[in-house]
UniProtKB/TrEMBL annotation:
<dbReference type="InterPro" id="IPR011761">
    <property type="entry name" value="ATP-grasp"/>
</dbReference>
<feature type="domain" description="ATP-grasp">
    <location>
        <begin position="145"/>
        <end position="343"/>
    </location>
</feature>
<keyword id="KW-0436">Ligase</keyword>
<dbReference type="GO" id="GO:0046872">
    <property type="term" value="F:metal ion binding"/>
</dbReference>
<dbReference type="GO" id="GO:0005524">
    <property type="term" value="F:ATP binding"/>
</dbReference>
<keyword id="KW-0547">Nucleotide-binding</keyword>
<keyword id="KW-0067">ATP-binding</keyword>
<dbReference type="Pfam" id="PF15632">
    <property type="entry name" value="ATPgrasp_Ter"/>
</dbReference>
<dbReference type="GO" id="GO:0016874">
    <property type="term" value="F:ligase activity"/>
</dbReference>
<protein>
    <submittedName>
        <fullName>Predicted ATP-dependent carboligase, ATP-grasp superfamily</fullName>
    </submittedName>
</protein>
Length: 425
């Protein structure tokens, strides 16, 4: 990356030491509806003592994060769903700007594009993300679970759905509780034959199988556009996240939280969570990322088995996570850590956080209540609606900490709630 050593010219025609002062330095972030983009803007754009310009890469108008007072510029880009190569070219054109220091991935498709074309981006910006081979080892869950077993990290019983001639060391019994989930976290040409380099599909939703019923393999393969995974259902309310920033195989900063509620009563992205510090969780997360010789961001999702107490790996998200604002509020300022690492200032990263804090995504809490009213998940126990309302109200009073709502930056929150109302009215 050449630009870290370049400078701009001051009013007297003399070069300015941009790399040292971070003056006229910009960071580009894809603008998505999840709170991760907003957290990056508030962390970097609202920081005293630095001059970081924040650029939203927006596929459409009206995304809440672009309403933030800390969003300095919005650049329109094509949707990766419409043309993945055009999306890459748009990101690369932004990277070519002399003020842009790095790009922050907030979706799996972002880090996929950045990893696949890493050599192109490396000529213009710092690239604290993995190469494509390493990325594939986490976006392909078959490779991921193999890596986890090699690292000594516990995983649920998992196999390709059409592997019914079972060579596995566990019992293939349809009376057990199973789920069917995508093998790949994104469907692109590197992973599935049906896609061209310009095509990208979101992964299909997880399907819960009724106990005692053998699944229709042909239907599931057709609907999921590839051979998905069959995985044992882990009955637990104990969902945990291990979050990390790595520098070529070495941990730079880590954080943990326990999910208390998700978007759905069956789980999913977190709407309410608390920061924790559990040595066994730290060990499992580090063992896996160390084994992968990871580079960049990672959110490692675990379930704690109610029977054994083991942390069982679910997946790795190789980018910023939707609950990022809460990580920052707990003291783990990952957007700033990422910025420091991208600017060659790893030695200055001071990473610490406070355990025992809790925080909410209010839109997520509303989605949790909606899931109780409209969803029926075969293997998950549905709570009482009114008891859930009471629990949410009590937790908001006890832990008034919110991902989007901010007295000093209200417009993103208002836009987010209006969008949620429009989507679900």
């Amino acid at each position: 990356m050449a630009k870290a050593d370049e400078g701009t010219i001051d009013a007297d025609g003399e070069p300015m030491a941009v790399a040292d002062d971070w003056a006229d330095s910009s960071v580009a972030v894809p603008a998505i509806t999840a709170p991760s983009t907003l957290a990056c803007f508030r962390s970097l754009g609202g920081r005293d003592g630095t001059d970081v310009r924040t650029i939203a890469l927006a596929e459409r108008d009206g995304i809440p994060a672009t309403r933030s007072r800390y969003c300095d510029e919005t650049v329109p880009v094509p949707s990766p769903h419409e043309n993945l190569i055009a999306y890459k070219d748009a990101l690369l054109s932004v990277a070519m700007r002399p003020d842009v220091r790095t790009i922050i991935p907030v979706r799996d498709v972002d880090v996929y594009v950045l990893a696949k074309y890493k050599d192109e981006f490396d000529g213009y910006v710092s690239t604290p993300w993995p190469d494509l081979e390493t990325l594939a080892a986490v976006q392909d869950r078959v490779q991921l679970f193999d890596a986890a077993e090699a690292a000594g990290v516990s995983v649920p019983d998992t196999a390709l759905l059409d592997s019914t001639d079972n060579d596995w060391d566990w019992d293939w019994d349809w009376d057990r509780e199973w789920i069917v989930k995508a093998r790949y976290s994104i469907l692109v040409d590197e992973y599935v034959d049906r896609c061209t380099p310009a095509e990208y599909l979101d992964p299909p939703k997880t399907e819960y199988l009724p106990p005692g019923e053998e699944p229709d393999v042909d239907r599931l393969r057709r609907e999921m556009n590839h051979v998905p995974l069959l995985q044992e259902y882990v009955p637990t309310t104990e969902e945990y996240g291990f979050f990390a920033l790595y520098d070529h195989g070495e941990p730079v900063a880590t954080f943990q939280h326990r999910q208390l509620r998700g978007y759905s009563y069956a789980g999913g992205a977190s709407s309410f969570r608390e920061s924790v510090r559990i040595p066994a969780l730290e060990e499992a997360g580090r063992d896996l990322l160390d084994h992968l010789e990871w580079h960049g961001l990672a959110m490692v999702e675990f379930l704690r088995d109610d029977e054994t107490g083991e942390f069982k790996l679910m997946e790795i998200n190789p980018r910023f996570w939707s609950s990022l604002p809460f990580s920052v509020q707990a003291g783990a300022d990952f957007p700033y850590y990422y910025w420091q690492l991208a600017n060659g200032k790893r030695a200055e990263i001071d990473h610490e956080y406070e355990a025992g804090l809790a925080g909410h995504l209010l839109r997520g809490e509303l989605l949790y209540l909606r899931s109780i009213l409209v969803d029926d998940v075969e293997l998950a126990e549905k709570p009482s609606f009114w008891s859930a309302v009471g629990e949410i109200a009590h937790s908001i009073v006890e832990h008034p900490r919110f991902d989007c709502a901010s007295i000093t930056d209200m417009r993103p929150f208002v836009r987010d709630m209006l969008d949620a109302y429009d989507a679900y009215k």
